[in-house]
Amino acid sequence: MGSHKDLTDSDSTDSMDPLPTPATRPGRDGLAAILARPARALVALDFDGTLAPIVPDPEQARAHPDALPALAALAPKVAAVAVITGRPADVAVRYGGFAGVPGLEHLVVLGHYGAERWDAVSGEVSAPDPHPGVAAVRAELPGLLASITQGTWIEDKGHAVAVHTRRAADPQGTFDTLRAPLTDLATRNGLIVEPGRMVLELRPPGMDKGVALSEYVRELGAESVLYAGDDLGDLPAYAAVGELRSDGTPGLLVCSGSEEVTELSEQADLVVDGPEGVVRLLRTIAAHSD
What we know:
- Helices cover 37% and strands 19% of the residues.
- It has nine helices and 13 strands.
- It has helices spanning 25-36, 67-74, 89-96, 132-148, 171-188, 209-220, 235-246, 263-267, 274-287, and strands at residues 3-4, 41-45, 80-84, 107-111, 116-119, 125-126, 153-156, 161-164, 192-196, 199-203, 224-229, 251-256, 270-272.
- The longest helix has 18 residues, at 171-188.
- Residues 1-14 have low confidence and may be disordered.
């Protein structure tokens, strides 16, 4: 069980906040390795719910106002900062405000669970062709939803399609009602359904944050890794860090705490108080990495 350490209310009178203490031995070893050799560390972060507060309309999501200064302070000291998100890479870059920020030259955004990549150095997005099943689902989904429920909202992610239920009169009930028919629709078109916080995403198989994280760790040659997330879609990344730790690469699992999802907090080495806590943690690690 992760320890809930509120990093937003420091009792330190110094300008440098004290380091948190992860609840697990592997987590403490992971944090120690990151601080011992930050230039060989990868800091990987989810976007929605981790760097950006959850909002009713996903199009209004923006990074926490202190996120960019914290990332700009940390990024030059580590091997890389990676934002791993289900959103299209260019959308995450725009909502995060990551483009053209001094200090973020070591930032990459792995969008669509790693299917797309934006690099701060080039400012360009590389992406494969969309799975044909996504177009079929996109065409059929409005009619299916209209025949079952009201109050849902479709988010077209290009390489995936997400159905949000947060605006419905009964968000959780609508979510539960839609799981079976959306799973059937996805299966018929060669896709899978990824559940999240009042959202069901239909996307191609083989795309998840664990695969994206593992591949980038190998590409980078990182010697330690931090991963922070808040939702069910982050569980594969947690599993990837667990495998890396088993192979001798230290890692720290951070949960951006929420009452909607408890699965991550139960597996995390360190639980912080939402995006505010994540930002404080990044700033603290940067300050202790000099």
